[in-house]
Design goal:
The complex is a heterodimer of chains A (418) and B (80).
Chain A lengths: L17 H24 L3 H17 L4 H11 L3 H24 L19 H17 L3 H10 L2 H27 L9 H4 L3 H26 L10 H4 L5 H14 L4 H18 L6 H14 L10 H4 L14 H19 L12 H19 L5 H5 L7 H21 L4
Helix pairs in contact in A: 1-2, 1-15, 2-6, 2-12, 2-15, 3-4, 3-18, 4-9, 4-12, 5-16, 5-18, 6-7, 6-15, 7-13, 7-16
Chain B lengths: L1 E3 L7 H13 L5 E5 L4 H4 L9 E9 L2 E8 L2 H5 L3
Parallel strand pairs in B: 1-2
Antiparallel strand pairs in B: 2-4, 3-4
The chains are: A mainly alpha (418), B alpha+beta (80).
Chain lengths: 418, 80
């Protein structure tokens, strides 16, 4: 490392240790080898593991952050990341509709497609969404955000993940109360089954909602005084000549420079679709929930039988799924490993300790809130939102709107914490 | 003014940069030192709103120096 001088690194000579790239290669090879091991526990686990890695890679490269999408919208009037999410939702919606149509061609008879994230709508969705929104702003990242930041070496994000597991454990003790009093009475509103126009009307309405959210974001951003878009990066300005230089530039674009949020959202949308095609939509709460229940069982203070969970779908931890290697494990741990690989290749891995002790408390409290809330809403920003709106479920929209409300409250709280 | 926000995650680096630009009102440049890559996307769009231009320099792995320079320094800073 150079010290004492002001290092001015051009875009072609990044100050990064080649050691990180080598480590990235080693982790990549090990992770690919692990897909073979996972495949022996269940054929579908290998593709789910690879897709989880792709999701983590994409989240890291595009610095995708559901928390910032909602938060920065209120805090500083930026809708860049929100637009990325909308692109991902649009792609997923088109693909999910086709997959669900193959399972349930005649939606009006009340059948629901298996594995689609069609969740109960009601007080639990609103309360869960608001609480999750507050938690993700406090913790500085949502569930998928905290997971991929663990892969980048953020210590406080690991605290947030632990908080989430504890929060999910706490909810398990109160689950039956919520189930009896609230959730068992909430309907699963699936648009194709409820609208006279079936799939066509449901997809049209969902696209209209996505378009509406885009226009709202554009309006708000303009009102806040943004022209939108960033000036071109230095790397784009110089056009490389020659095959080697062009390949190098391509490498930089994919592995070193950040991706645009729209690119990230698009890849994430396709990844989620492929996960659903392979087995189940993208979700990370289910696995954290399994960790929570495994811990309470190991300590012999389990909450007993949780009512209704087996039939509820979404990111509920299913009792029947035993063992360590499951679909949710492959996806969730795959996200962390994929992000680690991306961070190493771009030279962005670093063990980062927050400068103030209170950040750990924020991460823990935010994590607890997110855990409790995602247990209640049967999913987080991924499972109950990013995979739920494409499932043509009303719950995704209600959870999303509640997230926005919670993020707004979270911002008000955060502004008081220096 | 130099803001060392290494270890901080969003939204703190951006919040602190905006606070500094609001306080200094173009009298002084603001230098943000960060190891949080998302800042490279969140801080630059804030600069023109407060009369600043920006430049990014990679100073480490991963570390960046975002320099926010007043667009019209003499006019705004000279009077006081």
């Amino acid at each position: 490392m150079t010290t004492g001088t002001n290092v001015r690194a051009s875009s072609w000579a990044p100050m990064r240790l080649p050691a990180q790239s080598i480590a990235g290669g080693v982790v990549l090879v090990a992770a690919l080898a692990f897909s073979r091991v996972a495949g022996t526990a269940g054929a579908v686990l290998a593709p789910l593991w690879l897709l989880g890695m792709l999701a983590g890679f994409t989240l890291q490269r595009s610095r995708f952050c559901f928390a910032s999408a909602f938060r920065d919208f209120f805090l500083f009037g930026q809708s860049r990341i929100l637009n990325g999410i909308l692109v991902g939702l649009a792609i997923s919606t088109a693909g999910f509709a086709l997959l669900m149509f193959r399972q349930v061609p005649f939606p009006q008879f009340g059948a629901l497609p298996n594995e689609a994230h069609i969740l109960p709508v009601g007080l639990s969705t609103v309360f869960g969404g608001v609480l999750f929104g507050i938690g993700m702003v406090l913790a500085g990242g949502c569930s998928s955000g905290s997971l991929y930041r663990v892969g980048e070496g953020y210590v406080a994000s690991a605290v947030a993940v632990v908080g989430m597991v504890v929060g999910l454990g706490l909810l398990a003790f109160q689950w039956n109360w919520w189930w009896d009093g609230v959730i068992s009475n909430e309907p699963k509103l699936w648009l194709p089954g409820r609208l006279p126009g079936g799939y066509g009307a449901a997809v049209a309405l969902t696209f209209a909602g996505i378009a509406g959210a885009f226009v709202l974001g554009l309006w708000w951003e303009t009102r806040q005084g943004f022209g939108g878009g960033l000036p071109a990066r230095a790397a784009d300005a110089e056009a490389p000549a020659g095959v080697r230089a062009r390949l190098g530039a391509l490498w930089r674009r994919v592995f070193v420079d950040g991706w645009s949020p729209v690119m990230g959202g698009a890849v994430l949308g396709v990844t989620g679709l492929l996960m659903y095609l392979a087995a189940q939509p993208f979700g990370v709460t289910g696995e954290l929930s399994r960790w929570a229940q495994g811990s309470t069982r190991a300590l012999d203070l389990g909450p007993g039988v949780l009512k209704g969970l087996d039939a509820i779908g979404g990111c509920a931890a299913r009792a029947g799924e035993g063992g360590v290697l499951t679909g949710t494990f492959a996806i969730t741990v795959g996200v962390i490993v994929g992000s680690l690989i991306a961070a190493l290749f771009s030279g962005e891995f670093k063990l980062r300790f927050p400068p103030h002790k209170r950040r750990y408390a924020q991460a823990l409290v935010g994590g607890l809130a997110m855990g409790y809330a995602s247990g209640l809403a049967i999913g987080c920003t991924i499972g109950a939102f990013f995979s739920s709106i494409p499932s043509l479920s009303v719950s995704g929209w209600v959870f999303g709107a509640s997230l926005a409300g919670g993020a707004w409250i979270g911002v008000r709280i955060l502004e008081r914490i220096p | 003014m130099e803001l060392d926000v290494r270890g901080e995650v969003c939204p703190y680096p951006m919040m602190k940069a905006v606070q500094a630009m609001k306080k200094l009102k173009g009298r002084e440049e603001v230098v943000v030192i960060t190891d949080h890559a998302p800042c490279l996307e969140t801080i630059p769009p804030q600069a023109p709103r407060h009369g600043y231009a920006y430049s990014i320099e990679q100073t480490g792995s991963p570390e960046w120096r975002i320099t926010l320079t007043p667009r019209v320094p003499a006019e705004m800073g000279g009077a006081r």
